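ok so i was messing around last nite and threw this chain in just to see what happens. nothing serious, just curious
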Amino acid sequence: MNLIRARSDRQHGAALIVGLILLLVLTLLAVSGMSTATFELTMAGNTQFSQNAFQNAETGIEVALQSGDFNTLAPTDVEALDADGHGYVAQIEFQSTTAPFDGAYSIGSFSAYHFDIESAGVAQRNAASSHTQGFYVVGPAGGP
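result:
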C-alpha cells in the first residue's frame, strides 16, 4: 500500500490542468467557427439582395416596354417603389430616328424610332443594379 500512495502524491492535479487547456482550445475553435458562419451568412444574404436588385432593374425594363408610352418629345418615367424604397425606377428616352431598310415596306414611308430604357433596381441593404436596354419602334415617317 505504501507504493500506491506514493504514486498518487506525484500527480498534483495534472489531469485537471490538461483538461482545462483542452476545454480552452475547444472553446476557441467553437467561437471561431461561429464567427465564420455568421460572416458567411451575411455574404449569402448580400448576394441574395444583389440578385433582388438585379431582378428589380429587369422588371423596370419589362414594365417600361409593356407600357407602350414611347414619346419622342420628352422622357417617360416608370417607377414602382415600396415604402422602404425598394423596387425600380425606369426612364424611356428617345435617341434618334433612322430609315428602315430600303424597300422593306411597300405600303408607305416608315421610320425606325430608337429609344433607350435606363432602369435602376434597389433592394435591401442598399443593394443596387442599373441596366440599359435599347430598342426601336417602326412607325410612320415624320413622327407620331
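not much to say yet. The radius of gyration is 34 Å.
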